[in-house]
Amino acid sequence: MKKILFLLAAFVLTFSLAACGGEELAELPEEVTMENLDEYLDRPDVQYVDVRNFDDKLNSGYIEGFEMIPFFDYLEYENILVRTDGWNFEAASLKNESALKGLFNEDKAIFIMCGSGTRAAFVLAALEAAGYENVYNVGGIADYDGEYMVLGDGSYTIDMPVKGDYTPGIYYGMAESSGYYATVIINSAGGIEEVILNALYTIDPDDIENSGDEYVTTKHALGPDYGMKAITGKGWYEHANELAAALVANQGWSDEWDTYVAGSHDKFVVDDEEVVMDGIAGVTIGIEGFKEAFAEAIGQAE
After folding, report:
1. In the Cβ-directed half-sphere of 258, how many Cα atoms lie within 13 Å?
2. Which of 1, 26, 165, 286 is most buried by its number of CB atoms within 10 A?
């Protein structure tokens, strides 16, 4: 009786393995591409990974069966795998090997895809550097013409918060000598989310009685009518906003902008006063005053 039960159990196990493909899987070839990918989908011995961003998946579509491990919005964003020499992988690019291994299964073959194959190649190189031996770059979804395409909605986007090392909050700084001031907003991810630049504007003593205050801001008092439009085509208000946008885009002050303050570029005259252009886009505002105000504000967030 025990012998019959043993044989029955062995038969059931063999049948189960055959049913799930465990013993009948074809050997993986040396190369898998978008052209032959469909032949090797839905295998229990393969981890299928799409390293595009989530919004790429929902916007332009995805291949059924691939899980998402975004390169830009996760691996690089979380400082696990970071480009240090463009798209050329080097040892310094792998910042957190244990985190990488927690995402990719060492006991399976790994098929990696992206938009064109570039990100997939970078991740493949990182995995091989970490000791993985059976990793495939199957290419970019743009080349896929198989049966398992799931279409996206053509419009989906995800706005990832700018990430940095600052303390979240709102900070203020002022250059006492010029009255220029900066408001810096740091988001929950520690990145510079917004910068607001302005300056105190002294009202004519005769108008103080009507205004109710001795000081207002330059933007409030003059707006885009500050007397620079005839020269640069933009008002002070617009120039200050451009500088603020540049600070956000650069996530801080660029030393290269100081060369304009040093007078190495063209000067011109506004109301008989020589003005030095800064390096943001021909902006004609007091860049030194804003630099001082921004430094005071951002210093509080460090």
Report:
1. 5
2. 286
Superfamily (CATH H level) for 29-150: Rhodanese-like domain (3.40.250.10)
Phi/psi class of residue 180: alpha, beta or left (left: φ > 0; alpha: ψ in -120 to 50)? beta
By DSSP bridging, strand 149-150 and strand 62-63 are antiparallel
The string of pLDDT tens digits covering residues 192-222 is 999 998 877 555 545 445 444 444 455 455 4
Instruction: Identify which of 52, 40, 126 has the alpha carbon closest to the alpha carbon of residue 83.
Output: 126
- Do 210 and 189 contact (CB within 8 A), yes or no? no
Q: Which of 228, 221, 245, 244 is nearest to 291 (CA)?
A: 244
Percent of the chain with pLDDT over 90: 52
Helices (H), ranges, 30-117 = 54-60, 97-103
pLDDT in tens, 45-95: 999 999 999 999 989 999 999 999 999 999 999 999 999 999 999 999 999
pTM for this predicted structure = 0.63
Q: pLDDT digits over 118-165, tens only?
A: 999 999 999 999 999 999 999 999 999 999 999 988 888 788 889 999
Q: Which residue type does 274 have?
A: E
* Residue 8 neighbours by CB under 8 Å, 6+ apart: none
Query: E strand or H helix at 222, and its extent?
Result: helix 218-222
Residue-range domain boundaries for the chain: 29-150, 169-299
For residue 161, what are its two tokens? Answer: 């918060």
